[in-house]
Amino acid sequence: MSKQNHKNKMTVINGSHFSNLEEFYEEVSSLFLKDEDWKVGTLDGFDDILYGYEGEIIWKNVQKSKEDLGFNLTKEFYENKIRQGKPFNVTLIQQKLDDLINGNGQTLFEILIEIIESHKNITLILD
What we know:
53% helix; 13% strand; 3 strands
């Protein structure tokens, strides 16, 4: 019976509710993990909660999110991981940072969109 709950749902991610990655995780945790004891705290964690979800995700205020989760925040995100070192693969992250700076890398916003779009049972609507 509980599988039915996730079918043909519609979830709205509202870009005006967050302006950085931590707040994004808070937002999606409150939307997708209402009855759970854990919260999303990583990109992989965000990917994990989308398994088993079927339906539409409408991302509102997408332009704000594109800017908030854009170049500057992404650069900071990678620099923080490099500064922290282990357990992160610093060489890989440095490459991602270099790609970003050279205009070939993905922003956090683009990474999040790619994660959502990798789930075939989800229709993403950018608003």
